[in-house]
Amino acid sequence: MRNDSLADLGFQPFFQDQIKDESYDVGRISTAANGIYTIMTESGKIKGIALGKLHYLAAGPEDLPCVGDWVRFLRTDHGREGIIHHILERKSLLSRKRAGEKQEVQVMAANVDFVFLVSALNRDFNTRRMERYLTLVYESGASPVIVLTKKDLAEELEEKMTAMEEAAPGVPVIAVNSLTGEGYDQLERFLTRGKTISLLGSSGAGKSTMINRLLGKAMQKTLETREGDDRGRHTTTHRELFVLPDGGVMIDTPGMRELQLWSGSDALQATFSDIEQLAEQCQFRDCKHESEPNCAVKEAIQNGELSNERLKSYRKLGRELDRLELKEKYGAHRASQMMRIRHFGKR
């Protein structure tokens, strides 16, 4: 059985600086399900549970251990199990709004350095969906990397690469073929010792195949995509952390049919940095980019420098985040009323 050092598992000075005494062991959460955790340590994996006090003080799921967390624990049962007493402060946290009307967060992964946003180069290719993923990643504190899979099936590859680069200014966009390994050399700079990568993408995007390729063995089950629309079925059913043989740590997550944002106006500005920069050149600071004179955003659309679809996506995600913020403060009913007043000027 392979035992990895804490550094191999992603332990960095940021976490070391938080430890003032050595009365507890340190480990990293690799799986979490129904209150039972797998803790990776320098001496191997053990099962763990959270101290009752952690549950009592938790205001929500984000206050309990999740995959990727560094924790301090005490060993029990002759060292074979552990009780988690502390969660070290996180560098980053991937989370989204849980499906449904309730304002509940769904925690996905913690302490991620890079997020590989995986999209297949088939009929499921969608730049607007990628903008939603980018907003989530920027809000988390991690750095996004777009990985376009199934390069061998791509039609109009260059056009799709350009479209994705325009949808994600400044973000690396890499096309790969997981069957042959083509393009994987471009991922190596992110897969280094001590760094943690998480994979996000829709079902059937090729995340599990990527995991298997990087691990050098079949660890994740894969399924064929559906005929007719190239949409996949869920193959990863839970979140799990893997140590890669050539360096780095990777967290796989279940494919998502729907991504509901949680919060983050700053993240929206980062996702649409091109529109934000153009808006600074508008004549009016509160320009809505509709009928105002000397609007730099509308001029960019007319000149072909910016697509109208991207502006529509910017507005749509902005309205969604506005409503989430109002809903959290005032409740669903009042939030809907305030949104109508804000956008239509009437009750």
TrEMBL record:
It is an enzyme of class 3 (hydrolase). GO terms for cellular component: cytoplasm. Zn(2+) binds at C282, C287, H289, C295. Residues 101-259 form the CP-type G domain. Its cofactor is Zn(2+). Transmembrane segments: none annotated. Binds 1 zinc ion per subunit. GO terms for molecular function: GTP binding; GTPase activity; metal ion binding; rRNA binding. Its EC number is 3.6.1.-. The keyword ATP-binding does not apply. GTP binds at T149, K150, K151, D152, G201, S202, S203, G204, A205, G206, K207, S208, T209. One of its GO terms (biological process) is ribosomal small subunit biogenesis. Monomer. Associates with 30S ribosomal subunit, binds 16S rRNA. One of several proteins that assist in the late maturation steps of the functional core of the 30S ribosomal subunit. Helps release RbfA from mature subunits. May play a role in the assembly of ribosomal proteins into the subunit. Circularly permuted GTPase that catalyzes slow GTP hydrolysis, GTPase activity is stimulated by the 30S ribosomal subunit. Belongs to the TRAFAC class YlqF/YawG GTPase family. RsgA subfamily. This is Small ribosomal subunit biogenesis GTPase RsgA. The gene is rsgA.
